[in-house]
Amino acid sequence: MLSKGHAGPALYSTLAIKGYFPMEELSTLNHNGTRLPSHPDRLKTRGVDATTGSLGQGISIAGGMALSHKLAGRPNRVFCIVGDGELNEGQCWEAFQFIAHHRLNNLTVFVDWNKLQLDGALDEIIRAFNLEEKFRAFGFDAITVKGDDIVGLLEAVQPVPAADARPRVVILDSIKGQGVPYLEQLSNSHHLRLTDEMTAALNETIRQLEAAHELTSHPQDKRRRGNAQSVRWLCRPAD
After folding, report:
1. Of the candidates 141, 147, 145, which has an alpha carbon nearest to the alpha carbon of residue 163?
2. Torsion angle of alpha carbons 207, 210, 213, 214, nearest 10°?
3. d(CA 13, CA 199)
4. Can you give the residue ranges of the Transketolase N-terminal domain (predicted)?
5. DSSP letters spanning 64-95
6. Where are the alpha helices (DSSP H) in 102-195?
7. How far is Cα 191 from Cα 21, in angstroms, rounded to an integer?
8. Which tens digits make up the pLDDT trace of 129-144?
């Protein structure tokens, strides 16, 4: 569940890598008639479970999904990504209270804590204070992981022991635009239009990543090549 629906392009890239639609379709993002609008729409895009973008609603839907699995005795797990700016919405905290009350330990929440939101720095708009302490006060098992720590993320998504009824929240200490130095330094990357200079910088970063990981020598390894390919399609000039 992508509650922070404005990150739709990242979801679409993942869905394309997993084969839900051709990689080439990523270049239709936000075009008239596209199946890939800026915010995910379950009626338009294959693989999207819920329409999101009105912040706070995705985590509420995720809580309902997790409860339905519990009531039906299904072993399914639910994962939900929320933004740190999204936590300004009171609906999020109503949902967290609901989730903890019903002991939905089959739900894992990821908070993208990149310290920026649409209108500026998080601390300048509404301070988040200590997120771990807040979530623990709401009855969650809360941990913080670096956003690019793959090993830490894999450990964080392990099932919660059955004896522990607490839902889990993983606070991702991240940097907006991480991995692309040019974007990491921008404060307005939330709603950025890519210039030719930015596209060139992205392509250079991809080239360096491919060289570092020897991706070009593994043409059959689609998982390793997928991220670079999806970024390339998103960076293509409009037709």
Report:
1. 141
2. -120
3. 17
4. 1-232
5. HHHHHHHHHT----EEEEEETGGGGSHHHHHH
6. 122-125, 131-137, 150-156, 181-184
7. 25
8. 999 999 999 999 999 9
